[in-house]
Every structure is written in structure tokens, then in C-alpha cells.
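Readers of this paper often ask what the protein records in our data store actually look like. Below, we set out a record of this kind in full and without editing:
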Amino acid sequence: MDYSKPTLLVISGPNGAGKSTHIQTMLPVALENIWSFDRDKTRIEFEHILRAQDIDLKEIPLRSTRMMEDRLIQEMKQAINIKSHFVLETPLSHPDYWGYIDLFENNGYQIQLNYLGLDKISDCIARVGQRVMEGGHYVEPGTIKGVYQKNLEHINEYRNTFRMIELYDGMKIPTLLVRIEDNLVTYALNNALKKNWIKAGLPSLAQKVKSYIKSNS
């Protein structure tokens, strides 16, 4: 990956995977000093502002989300204008989120995906529950399930969008399992396919990984 070219690094994964916590450990050296746009943190900041303005509590979630999206788009356009690297932490479970990627791709950026996975949906729900106990934001179990499944479905389908894909195990300390560049596997742990979210959730990529491990065994 040639980081002399403008690059969008997408950090993704299911709810509770620890993306915000571990994001700095997953950045290429060329992007180490670039902080990601944290959608959740920014939305919460706007929620606090709206509460201080005595806005109807029922209106705050929608309004704060809109304000966050406006801020994100503003910062993305600023980065594109000067062709600087950009790090974006986001789910890829909804077509709207892929619009962010389109914006950069249409302006000549190369796209990298670093995905932090968890073994099961129940792991995500437990992690989010722990986060709430520590003062973090709550996510409905149904939403968690949808994000978990749709993330993988969309990545598997639109995998060619990414110049590079790195898959990390998020169950403990993030561990690189697989690296794919220009549709070729360049690194894979022998136990990578023991992760069902790779084997079943990303079948097209899993086949490449299987062939790589077999040829290097």
C-alpha cells in the first residue's frame, strides 16, 4: 500500500468490538498521527449541547445525529480539498455509510478497511452492556444483531472497493488475522478460518485465505 497517495482508512466492526478503544493500534505507520472521526463521541457532544438548550428530549436523538452527520461531511470535504489522509470509524451495515466511501473514492482516494471482529452476536451484546455500566451509550440488541450481520454481508459483496483489507480478532487484544491487498492474501494466521465471522460471514475472502494457508503449509 503506497501511503504517498491520499488514503481513506475505514475502521469498522460490530457494536462493542472496541473500535474506539483500540483504533490507534490498528493504524498504519503513515497514519499514526491522524485521529479518527468518532461518530458516537461527536453525537454525544451534540446531545449535551441540545440538553443545555432545553430542547425536547424526544427530538434530541434525531437532531444530534443530523448535527454529527453535518460535522462529519464538513470534515471529510475539508480533507478531500487538501488531499489529506482521513480515518473514519463507522459501521458499514447501511448503504448510507457507503456514501462516505463513495465521496472519497470519487475524488481519487485509495480505500483501506481495518475490520475488528467478535466471535458471536452475544459477545457484542455483552460488551455493549458492560459499556453502558461504565457510562457508555446503549444499543438495542436487535440493532446490534443487524449491524453484525449486515456489516459482513456488505463487506463480502463490495470487497473490491478496498485496496487493502485487514481483519483483526477483537476478542482480547486486537490481533491481525488476515491481510489482503489488491485481491491477494499477503498474510494469514493458520487459525484465521476458525473465526466463524470470517469463514461464514466473509465467504469470498475466506476462500482466498483457505487457498493461501494451503499453499503455505
